[in-house]
Write a structure and sequence with these properties.
By secondary structure, this protein is an alpha/beta fold. The protein contains six helices and 17 strands. The strands form four sheets. Strands 1, 2, 3, 4, 5, 6 and 17 form a seven-stranded mixed sheet that branches. The protein has a five-stranded parallel sheet with strand order 8-15-9-10-11, covered by helices on one side. Strands 12-13-14 form a three-stranded antiparallel sheet, with no helix packed on it.
Length: 312
Amino acid sequence: MTDILIIGAGTAGLTAAIYGTRAGYSVEVLEQRIHGGQIINTTSVENYPGMPGVSGAEFAGALYEQAVSLGAEIRYETVIRAELGGDVKRVYLESEQIKTAKSLIIATGAKPRKLDVPGEDRLLGAGVSYCATCDGAFHRGRDVVVVGGGNTAIDDAIVLAGLVRKVYLVHRRNEFRADASAVKRLRRYENVEFILSSQVEEIRGETAVESVVIYNQEEDSRRDLSVSGVFIAAGHEPDNGLFADEITLSPEGYVVAGEDCQTNLPGVFVAGDTRTKQVRQIVTAAADGAVAALAASSFLAAKAETGKENEL
C-alpha cells in the first residue's frame, strides 16, 4: 500500500513526487512512456525562473534524479482501469498488476492534438511525427513541414532548421500564439518559410510521406509541397477517459479542479495540464505538483489523526 500514488511523470507528477517524499510519505509514480512529459521536446527552456537556457531533456532528467534520490519509485507501466471512490485507491495495470494507495494524484498531462486529415494516421511513423526532437534527425538534408503556431511549433521549427534543408511552417492564422521572442529567433533562419492563413489538407505518400497539400483560406488556393516529413504541433488535449466514470471532467475532458487541485473525490488530486486552468506552462505544472502533493499529505495526516481518535 503506497501513501501517494501518482499517475504521470511529467513536470507536475515529478514535482509532486519530490514534495510527497519530502513530507515523509511513500510515493510511487506510474508513467506509460518516458519521464518528463511534453518538456522533453523543448530544446531550450526560457521561461522557468532561474534556469534560462536549460534543455527540456536536462530539466526532466534533473527532476527525475531529484525525485528518485529522495525515495520516490518510478515505474513504467500502462494504466488500464482505476477505482478511486473508496478509501483505498486501486489502479489496474496492463501488466495485470494492481496498485493500491491511500491517496492518488492524476498528472497525466495532455496528448498531441491530431489534424484529422487524410494520410495522418496511415503515415504515422513513416514521416508523420508529433516530436521533432525525436524524429528530426531522420530528415537531414531534406524538406519538412511543421504545423502549428504556438511555442511548441516554433521550438520544433528551430530544432529542424538546424538539421534539414528547408522548413515550411504552416499556421492557420496570420499571427502566432507563440512568444514574440521565439518567433523573432526563428525568423533568423534563412531556410524557414512561413506559410500563414493556411492549413494542411492532406498528407500524401505510398509507404512514407512524399508531399502535403496546403490550402490557403484567404486566397482560396492550394499548393502541393514535396516533403519527407510532417511535424504536427497543433496543441494538446487531455486523456482522462480512464477516470470519466468517477472523476468530474469538463466538456473538453479536463479534470475539474481549482487551485487547490482537489477533485470531486476525497483523497484524489490532480496536477498539471490535465486539469481545468487558464495557464498551462511548465511553471504552473510544477506549482500544481507541489500543491497537490501537500494537499495529499494533509489528507493523509488528517486521516491518520482520525484513526488515532477512533482507537481511543
